[in-house]
Amino acid sequence: MRKLFLLDALALIYRAHFAMSKNPRINSKGLNTGAIMGFTNTLLEVLQKEQPTHIGVAFDSAKKTFRHDQFEAYKANRQAMPEDLSAAIPYAKRIVAGFGIPVLLVDGYEADDIIGTLARRAEEHGFEEIFMMTPDKDYCQLVTERAKVWRPAFMGNAPEVLDIPKVLAKFEIERVSQVIDILGLQGDAVDNIPGIPGIGEKTARALIKQFGSVENLIANVDQLKGKQQENVRNFAQQGLLSKELATIQCDVPLPFEPESLQYTGPEEGVLRELFEELEFRQLAQRVLGGGEAAGARAVANKLKAGAGAKAKAAPAGQMDLFGGAAPPAAPVGPDDRQAEWGDADPTTPPPHHPATKRTLRDVPHRYHLLETPADRALLVESLRQQPEFSFDTETTSTDALTATLVGMSFCWLPGEAYYVPVPPDDRAATLAIVEEFRAVLENPETSIVGQNLKYDLLVMRHHGIRLRGKLWDTMLAHYLLEPEQRHGMDYLAEAYLDYTPVPITDLIGPKGKGQKTMADLAPSQVSDYAAEDADITLQLKHVFEPLLLERNQLALLLDLEGPLVPVLAAMEEEGIRVDTEALADISRQMTGEIADLEGQIYALADQEFNLGSPKQIGEVLFEKLKLGGDKTRKTRTGQHATGEEILTELANDGHEIAQLILDHRQLTKLKSTYVDALPQLIREQDGRVHTTFNQAVAATGRLSSTNPNLQNIPIRTDRGREIRRAFVPRDAGHLLLAADYSQIELRLMADFSGDETMRAAFRDRLDIHQSTAANIFHVPLTEVTGEQRRRAKTANFGIIYGISAFGLAQRLKIPRKDATALIDAYFEEFPAVKRYMDEAINKARDHEYAETLLHRRRYLRDINSRNGTIRGFAERNAINAPLQGTAADIIKRAMIDIQAWLDASPELHTRMILQVHDELVFDVPVAEVPVVSEKITELMIAALPLPGGTPMDVEIGLGDNWLAAH
Predict the structure, then answer these.
(1) Has residue 661 got a pLDDT over 80?
(2) pTM for the full predicted model
(3) CB distance 331 to 491 below 8 Å
(4) Which of 12, 190, 254, 938 is the most buried (most CB within 10 A)?
(5) Whether the predicted pLDDT of 690 surpasses 70
């Protein structure tokens, strides 16, 4: 049986682009590959799951179409295509060709016309199954017994196939051809098809159900009433034109040759090179299998088979530690990289590298396995003489707090590295070997290079060693250079060194029950893998250091991010005690409240239904209760949209059931995410929760945390705040102390903008929101009302995030004209703030990045986009990134200074245990509270003096739980 799939490329690329717009995938060349990746995955899903015998992919012509001749304003209101999306289209065409699929394009026609034509021709040629793959509802007009619309999977929903019965039900019509009548009547704002004014989707359906067609509606216009009759009479010709514009043409001059659409498989060489260029490593493995990488691994395994204390043969060169000839720097040393890049702009990403990456088999190297005391002693002596070396650990787990050490690797010359195994099942012997390296690992004058050094630091702490040298972390270096890219070592090696490291799965196998740990392998099996890690890390350091220097960011790494690593490690190791009884009490209360909310919702709906099902919620709200009128929205799968924004709009319109559903969602999420989950994260060894602080995740520079995510505990709701009650000090002799920067981003805005009114308010310790209200409402400070202060507060925080009049109106629940007046009054009273915002945007347009006080950058590659929505998002980031990023830098500096003071005060037993947004939390003995609170306040205020002298302020809270302290 012949099965033909015809794909609408641009519709699928648009869908992929906007699905990933909040989490862009930027490769090392600065290309946003999210849309390309999403499109490729969609294509691959069809090929693998549906196994079409024939397939083609249609693209829109860049030239004007026949519809522009019919209606000059056709698509005139469309925003310009985002640059990332237009850059994706040529790649999509190459990917389609690489899969061996014809690219279908005819000048003067759109993809839907091409697909419609081929679908009709395929039916004439006897094809049994024809699927038009697109999220576009317009294709429903083409559905026949054999030709169906295939709507791809989206947001976790399964693909949807629309046949004749489903189309008739979806549009509430009798004939498929009436889809065109509905589209013509309602028009299309995206394509600028005008339709007839006053007729939306629901009205169009009702009219076509009554009259059958646009032509019959016009002929019977006298049966209509009022404004609707007037509009249909006056805009009849416009309605007929709109129907014509909405009609997909099935007579495109395109020959139908079934053999050219027959799928025979991909062009592997073409795809491999293209995936390499786009840095789609996992996709390449999934589509093409082992290929070159498999060959590399086979050779690597052969090399491992003979691993031992003897080094491998290498070309003549510098003498190594054991008297042999050391290889030249490989894969790429600093001199090679400099020669390769020359005097290029340091903001330029690495150039395009060859499709075939080098591997361990291709480059000269000398990796040593050191198992004897004599060899280790010689290594220690050599390390003592090095001002810098890279260091890496091999362990049994990715959890640094529970991992057992298996071995250590060292490197100070590219291409030359050493692996020292330890017996993981003999802790005493392991500690003895580790002790041999104490002097070099704890030497404060040595620079220790590593990838994700916090992990190695924690592992070594559990084995009695503190890494006291200057920490040079390649993961953090790349995070500063490209904050929104990936920072894993394998990715960095491929992107910057043209080198593919040995995958860990070659040693321990794929994930699953049968996966081994490093402890299950002989040292000779681990040696090359471990030594390679240290070697590659050192080479990455040589690449990143000059880039950081050029961008004035090396100090940010060495003086802030590097020194913060041991601070975070100490906090993770300390953990925080959680009161399980308090959580159980909160859980019981929430269970009762959830049940009560369910009862109220069911009563208002007059039925029970699944509150965890968006589909059932949509049916109850919009079909049974008829809420929202013509404003209801549908998802791409045809379900009613019931997201937070939709429900909030309904709640603001006075629909109680919508607010109750929002409350129910919030409570059930809090209960499952925190209240019921936190007890499962308590470690048996100490009864504490140990969150992991992530330094290289948030592009703004802020820290994030996982397992549990403490940054996302809601604090604006009573129930969210209540969860903090379960976080408690270690015992009755301690209190929790919370130190919170007060309005730090507003203070930064005052300082950066130079607005003297705002600066004076902070200097005089006035209530900034009351002061703002007094200025913009022109009333004395003492006469500011609570409502005026609330509006001023919302404006203060909203404006630094680039809030619009529409957004401010929604947040304050006031008319948009009042919100516009409020913003105008704000900028009239604080003109320097408006000037700062405009200058920030203009500067970002020139450089395509925004920068903090300490030169942390947030790249804004869309700041000059022709697409207004995307450009607006970048402009808001241009204003806020310097504020939020500088705030992050300030609290990081304070953490380093406070920890240094605590370390220098052995008589104190206070511990810093949490960092959340602008707040630090400490576990403090009661007797130490006076001295600790005073010193912490002092150090936080002085962490980073602002250039304009605007003072910082810190609020201190104490309590027997986090809620009470906050």
Answers:
(1) yes
(2) 0.73
(3) no
(4) 12
(5) yes
